[in-house]
TrEMBL record:
InterPro entries tied to this protein: Rhodopsin_dom_fungi (IPR049326), SAT4-like (IPR052337)
Protein name: CFEM domain-containing protein
GO CC, alphabetical: membrane
Organism of origin: Diaporthe helianthi
Entry's localization field: Membrane
All copies of domain Rhodopsin, residue ranges: 37-271
Pfam families documented for this protein: Fung_rhodopsin
PANTHER family: INTEGRAL MEMBRANE PROTEIN, PTH11-LIKE INTEGRAL MEMBRANE PROTEIN (AFU_ORTHOLOGUE AFUA_5G11245)
Membrane association type: Multi-pass membrane protein
Amino acid sequence: MARVTAATCGLSDESQSTRVIIAVTCFFVGTSVFVVLRTWSKLLTRTLYAEDHIITLAVTLAMAPFVCTVYMSALGFGSHLWRLKDGALLQILRLFYISEIVYVVVLALIKVSIVTMYLRIFWAYRPFYIACYFVLTFILLSSSIITVLTILSCRPVQFFWDRDIAGGSCLDITAIAYANSGLAVLHDVTIILLPMFMLWSLQMTRKKKFFIGVMFALGGIGLVATIVRLQTLRDFGTTPDPSWEWVPVVYWTSVELAAGIIASCLPAIAEAKKTLSQRVNSSA
């Protein structure tokens, strides 16, 4: 019916599906390069800490949204509703539901990994150490609440993707999405500001301070991506054309996750570079 109406009214048949696949693939491959470098650095330095296990879990789980997005695009995500084949929207919404849940978990794990690294590095500074534990607890509790709300956003769960189920109902999905992104912004700002004054008060070379600045800049990119993503959620739960209107949400979700994972990998890569330089100099 939608296709007949679209043809009669001359509605747009534009598609963003290919662009979506290219964009998320580039982000995934780029992120994977840094993860491989991080793994190599751990083999080189023979060190493995709690944050390494956490980020490995995050990266492994992050494969799910990537695979779901590619499959969604193959089904027509990125196209207008009236261009989709029969039953495609139901499958797209089911995959999007899975991706949203995993996204919340992955984002939390990335931030937990970074704060865990703070705890390891600055364990001797008790006030900072205690502050990190408060931040860690806040991230875990707030992310757990958002995860549960996302999972149970509709009753029955299947009503999220199949609105033909009799008696089904949903919470305010847009409000949940806003709450998630709002908390993500708060988490990012806290994580960026938490160690800043301490780091710059320590005795470091300009080169090391510059590298730390780059790491914070990447965290800033993730923060900007979260804020922009927040702006794309205005009609998230009410749009009649989700296969088209949700594309910006997917774009900025990819940027947000990629920036967070890359930022978490940089310290380990820097340590490997330092170890490699020392070995080269000692053998010279």
